[in-house]
Structure formats: C-alpha cells, structure tokens
Amino acid sequence: MAESPDHTRTTLLGNRHLGAYPKLGAWGDHPSRPTPTKPVIEHYACMIDLLGRAGRLSNAMDFILGSPYAESSLLWRTLVNACKLNGDLNIGRVASKRLLELDSRICTSYILVSNMYAASGVLDKAAEARKM
C-alpha cells in the first residue's frame, strides 16, 4: 500500500522535531531514488531542513541541485535559513545569491539574508542586504 503525501510529510516533520537526522529515509541522499509516494516540493523542503539541522549543508545544496525544484525559492530560502542556524557563510553566500536571483521582489528574502549575516557577526553585509 502506497503512503499518502501527508503521511510522508508528517513522518519527515516528526523526524525533524525528534532530531532523527542521521538516518534520513528512502530518498534522503538520492532524490531520484524510487519511493512509494511521489515527492512534492514540501517533501524536498523538509529534507533540506533535516540535512541543514544535521549540519550537512553541502549535501543539502546538492539535494536542491538534483531535485526537480532547483528553481524554487522555497528550497533556497530553507537552505539560507539552515546556513544561518549553522553559521556557515560559505554555502550561505551561494544560497543567498541564488535566492535573491529567484526572489528579488520579496522583501522577506532580503531580511533572511540580512539575518544570516547578522547572526555571523558580518554587520556590514547585513546592513547592505537590508538596504536592497
């Protein structure tokens, strides 16, 4: 019997809240692997959040790039937030650039980028992002 998308999303969210990051599930490391449920964008966002909370930011970026939603600002926004939480400006800069290319009209994207820089103590870049 196939799982419903809501069941899969609930499972991913439950794992995130329980801290179950190391074992990420059937398609955690390979988004193209066949699964009982066809993943939707929310599944991908949950997986990026899981990978980010586990500190696997490089894997999260590869996961986005290998997904059918690589042009979605939701996935890049999720990665920028994970970079903020982990204090990783290297991947954060790349993710921020991509996010702002995709979502340049949405002010919350600039605020998120600004908050990422501010959390890492790079206040000049934080102020610059807020002025855009």
UniProtKB/TrEMBL annotation:
Gene Ontology MF terms in the entry: RNA binding
GO biological process: RNA modification
Coiled-coil annotated spans: none
Superkingdom of this protein's organism: Eukaryota
Signal peptide: none
Cross-referenced InterPro entries: E_motif, PPR_At4g14850-like_plant, TPR-like_helical_dom_sf
Cross-referenced PANTHER family: PENTATRICOPEPTIDE REPEAT-CONTAINING PROTEIN
Protein name: Pentatricopeptide repeat-containing protein
Species assigned in the record: Stephania japonica
